[in-house]
Amino acid sequence: MKRHFAALLALALPLACAHAQTAASAQRQNLPALRAVVEQYLQTQSAGLPGQVLVKVGAVDQRMSLPHCPAPEAFQQPGARPWGKTTVGVRCTAPTAWTVYIQAQVSVLADYVAAAVPLAQGQPVEQGHLVLMKGDIAAMPNGILTDMAQAIGRTPTISLPAGTALRADTLRSKPVVQQGQAVRLVSRGANFSVSAEAKAIGTAGEGQVVQVRTQSGTVVSGTARMGGLVEVVL
């Protein structure tokens, strides 16, 4: 009888251990699934970018042992870019709170605007001065132009050699308001609009902020618009 019980016990113990290991495994987080969460997040965040988006998510440390999470959530720190070399956090709030960080590389292959010829500082940019080139704009500085219309008529703030990728911060808009110019100051509210004459204190392009002096001597800041208008939204 004792030998029979010992034999049954010898058979049962491995089965019990295997069952316990399976149950424990089922309660742990599937780590490869976290990479899929990060990839989906980055695909969504970069959906509005021009060109072809390629997402490559880094490896997850397989030595980690995390409690299973039914709904892991991806996030980024405020100010972080969802393209180029970046880091995405994945967190769980329930039933057990945890957070991990996973690195990724997001490439955006798109056309960008470059100088076809050397551009002198202050020289108005014409279409013949420009060329479209293709590259990973996610690896370039912020503000890269992707449409020639964004550059035509503007002037470089510094001299640029041929082949330079054009950025918004290296081009100045054609002034729509000149210093000393008489302008129409338009103040707009929810249900009203009031206009008055004023004189520009500075020079500004379309959409830029400029200060003007009213006939009473008050200095007001507004947004420069075409046609010698300065707009103030109240």
Describe this structure in words.
This protein is α+β, with helices and mostly antiparallel strands and 234 residues long. Helix content is 17%, strand content 36%. Strands 1, 2, 3, 4 and 5 form a five-stranded antiparallel sheet that branches. Strands 9-10-12-13-14 form a five-stranded mixed beta barrel. Strands 6-7 form a two-stranded antiparallel sheet. Strand 3 and strand 4 form a beta hairpin. The longest helix is centred in the first third of the chain and has 25 residues. The chain is flat. About 6% of the residues have low confidence.
**What's the shape?**
flat
User: What order do the helices and strands follow?
Assistant: HHEEEEEEEEEEEEEE
Rg, Cα atoms, Å: 30 Å
Number of strands: 14
Category from helices, strands and their pairing: alpha+beta
Mean pLDDT: 87
Question: What portion of the residues fall into strands of 2 or more residues?
Answer: 35-45%
Low-confidence region ranges: 12-25
Termini Cα gap: 94 Å
Determine the fraction of residues in helical runs and give it as a percent range.
10-25%
Main sheet record: 5 strands, antiparallel
